[in-house]
Each structure stands twice: as C-alpha cells, then as structure tokens.
C-alpha cells in the first residue's frame, strides 16, 4: 500500500517535523521495532511518524541492496507482530535518486499503550517506548502512568464515525488534494477503498469499513451531517452597539472553509495605507491587520478546536479588533496565566490528523510556531501585540488582533457589496495562503530566526531552515547579522555545534 506523501517531501521538504521522522542508513531490526512502538503510542498526539531505511542522519541517500528488500519486508512484518498489541505500519519500497529506500508510515495506533521487547533475544522484557524530541526512549515511571491513562483514548479526528459510510467520502476532493500536494499516490490506479486506506481515513474490517472523522472533515461535501458544528461563522459589525451586522457561515470540507473564510475576512477587514517618509526613498506600507496573523489565527482555531463540542469556530470583526474564538480552551500546561508568555510550548495536541492535512496544503506549519508567527506579523505591521485569552476552566480560546493605530478612528467595515455565492469546493482564482504583504519581509524573517533559537537552544542551521522555511542563503546571511549584532552565537564545532541566544 502506498503512502500519501512523497519520499522527496519526506527527505528534502519541511512538511513533517524532524521529531516525526527517523532516518536509518541500514536495517537495524531492534531500533526499528522500538521506533515503531514509539510512533504507535503517539504520546503527544502528533500523528505518529515515518521511518526511512536507506537514508543517513544527514539525509544522504545510502540506499539498500535490491536483493535485500524482500527479506527486509518480511522481517518488518515479523517485527510488527512482536509489538503488543500487534501493530502494522504502512510499508512501501521506493526507488529514489536511483537507489532503493523503504518507507514505513507509522500512524498513532488505535489500541495504545503499546509495548515492545527491549531486545530481540529470548525472554526479553517488554517496555513502553515513546518519542522525546527526535529520539526514541523508554518511558519513565511518570510517562508510563500517563501513557496507561491514555489507554484507548484515540483523538476524535482519528476515530471512525459509525454514522457515516465510506460512500460519504468524495473521490474528486481526494484527487484535488493529492494534486495540490504533488503526491505520488495515483488515484486512477487504486481502488477507492485502497485510496482511502492509503490516506488513512478509513478503518475497520473489509465488510464494515467506516470513514474516520478526519476523512469526513477533509473529503466530505457535508461533514455537518455527521460531526457537530464543523463550520466557521464570521460576523462583521458596523457599529459599536451591535445592531448593524452581517453574518456568513462557511461549510463543507475544512480546507475550503478556511480559504473561503479568509477571502471574506480579507474583503471585509483588511485595508492598506502607504505613507511617504521624508527621510527615505521608500514609502511605508501597513495594513489594518496583517493577513499572516489572521490566517495563522484562523487555521489554529480550526486545527485545535474540539469537534465533539456543539460550537463552531467564530470570527467577530469589530470596529477596532478581530476576535477568533474556538472551543474549548488550550490543553495543559497552557492556562490563562501563562498563555501570553513570550515562549509558550504546548506538548500535546487535541487533534493529531487534521494538522498533517493542513500542513500538506501549506495552511499551517510545524508545532509551537503559531503564536510566534502571529506576534511577528503584528510587530512588523506596526500593530499592537496580539492578545491570547482563555478562562480558568479553559472553556474557550480567543485570539484578539487589535487594529493598527492609524486606522482606529476610521470606519472600515462597510457592508459588503458582493454576495458570497461561490461553491466551497471551487478553486479560487488566487492562492489565499499568500499574505497580502508577502514575500516575508526581512525583519520578520530575523524575528522568526531569533525566536526559534530562543525556543530551541543549541539548534542546528538545518533545523532552523526546516522549521522557518527561510531559504538557506537568506538564513545564512541573517544568522551572520544576528551574530554580528551580538544577539546570538554559535557554540561547538561546525558538525555538532548549535546556535544559542547571548545573555540567556
């Protein structure tokens, strides 16, 4: 069975975080078994991960001997049976750069917690394995208790939906998705069932195959038939009292909802101003709200809301701010007291599959980057800092974006003249994931680099490049600028050293 993402994207791209990829230049059965078990346990609800055989830690393509591939495939099946309970990843041998590579796609398992033998010798003790950053480790006592407490707690988006059938999934939507992400999967050569299995959006025995909730959210024309309020509501207020307002509801596949809602918000709330400065040749351009901040805030709300609660994502465009609201609030350790801290780390996700699909569509990036990206976009635009709000019980989560001060006393939310009547699944004439003020400006890139190093001390250049998506040449230049400004330094050798913030 084929995997949905191409090997090229796994090796050279930045869609999948490094924590979710294990590279092995050869076949080490014991280490592979432990990583399979760790990805199956999916301790942080990241969505499992990938193991690539025949690729070195430096992403060099070593390749496997072709005569070994069949033998390795059989041994991988034996390893799958050694996991308690048996766990079977999707395995695909592929030719890449003229060499054979084997890819194991290891999604979070349906029957965690899983154990694996510490060694392949007889009577070996079974242990719980989890992922710590980019490493597979044995769970400590506290982690083991927590993992056992997660027994059979499958995130909602990865559960099957008994109210729906596989026929409720739309083949055309899948084809559009695969074309957009340049997938190696060919829907014309696979049966519909095999295509759904390759995308990991169905589960169950052949005679009772059912769609998963993430499949319905991404590839059903009417997910609201089977899932509570899976839509976005946008309200534009034209006065401070709240008597004059317009409402729009965006339904259908969530990726289409996001794109259509962003188009609507952009038309309703974003205005540009160009201001000439006597002391410089270039004029200053700024906006009521930076598009990047709105996009990131809305995608985060769709990604992190609970689809078990009867409450949609709400966007309220007031005269002086935009509130983007989702339910419930953030997961621990985030709370009302620390949510506006400069460095915020969420260790666990409510939905583990939605993020993968949105990342492949370039609608979101890696984990723990959202707040920093929103702050950086607001800062560069000259806007007030964003405010993140939740309550003691974490009932809701609000991202509040305040209008640029130069627009504060001007009416900008005039009633929209054109009705929004385009079908949700129609492609838009222009890509909506490109902000109005893109390409990403240089000060914003520097802020993103600095923030990433602050959050990840001793990180390597390749890690910064992968997570910030800043081209290598530009990244090298900005790193030298930050070193020259005395803000960062590089510790250790070129091979093993990393970057740190000075004065930390």
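^ Assign residues to that structure.
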């Amino acid at each position: 069975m084929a995997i949905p993402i191409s090997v090229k994207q796994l090796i050279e791209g930045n869609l999948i975080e490094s924590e979710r990829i294990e590279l092995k230049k050869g076949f080490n059965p014991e280490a592979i078994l432990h990583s399979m078990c760790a990805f199956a346990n999916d301790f942080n609800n990241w969505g499992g991960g990938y193991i690539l055989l025949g690729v070195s830690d430096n992403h060099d393509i070593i390749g496997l001997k072709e005569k070994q591939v069949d033998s390795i495939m059989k041994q991988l099946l034996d390893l799958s049976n050694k996991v308690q309970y048996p766990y079977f990843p999707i395995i695909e041998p592929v030719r890449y750069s003229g060499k054979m590579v084997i890819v194991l796609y290891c999604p979070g398992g349906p029957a965690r917690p899983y154990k694996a033998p510490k060694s392949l010798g007889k009577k070996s003790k079974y242990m719980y394995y989890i992922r710590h950053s980019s490493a597979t480790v044995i769970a400590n006592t506290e982690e083991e208790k927590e993992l056992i407490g997660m027994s059979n707690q499958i995130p909602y988006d990865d559960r099957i939906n008994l109210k729906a059938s596989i026929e409720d999934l739309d083949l055309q939507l899948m084809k559009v998705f695969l074309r957009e992400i340049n997938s190696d999967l060919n829907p014309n050569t696979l049966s519909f069932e095999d295509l759904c299995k390759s995308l990991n959006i169905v589960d169950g025995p052949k005679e009772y195959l059912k769609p998963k909730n993430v499949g319905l959210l991404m590839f059903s024309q009417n997910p609201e038939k089977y899932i509570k309020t899976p839509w976005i509501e946008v309200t534009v207020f034209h006065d401070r009292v709240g008597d004059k307002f317009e409402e729009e509801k965006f339904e259908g596949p969530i990726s289409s909802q996001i794109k259509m809602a962003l188009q609507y918000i952009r038309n309703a709330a974003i205005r540009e101003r160009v201001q000439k400065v006597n002391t410089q040749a270039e004029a200053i351009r700024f906006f009521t709200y930076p598009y990047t901040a709105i996009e990131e805030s809305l995608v985060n709300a769709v990604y992190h809301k609970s689809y078990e609660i009867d409450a949609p994502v709400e966007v309220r465009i007031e005269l002086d701010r935009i509130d983007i609201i989702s339910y419930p609030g953030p997961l621990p350790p985030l709370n009302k007291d620390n949510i506006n801290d400069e460095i915020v780390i969420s260790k666990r996700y409510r939905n583990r599959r939605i993020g993968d699909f949105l990342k492949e569509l370039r609608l979101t990036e890696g984990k723990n980057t959202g707040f920093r990206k929103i702050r950086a976009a607001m800062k560069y635009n000259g806007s007030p800092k964003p405010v993140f709000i939740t309550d003691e019980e974490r009932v809701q989560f609000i991202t509040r974006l305040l209008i640029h001060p130069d627009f504060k006393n001007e009416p900008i939310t005039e009633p929209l003249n054109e009705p929004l009547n385009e079908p949700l699944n129609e492609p838009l004439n222009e890509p909506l994931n490109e902000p109005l003020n893109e390409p990403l400006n240089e000060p914003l890139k520097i802020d993103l680099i600095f923030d990433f190093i602050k959050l990840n001390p001793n990180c390597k250049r390749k890690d910064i490049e992968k997570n910030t998506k800043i081209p290598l040449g530009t990244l090298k230049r900005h790193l030298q600028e930050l070193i020259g400004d005395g803000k960062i330094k590089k510790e250790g050798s070129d091979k093993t050293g990393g970057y740190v913030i000075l004065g930390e």
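Residues 415-440 have pLDDT under 50 and may be disordered.
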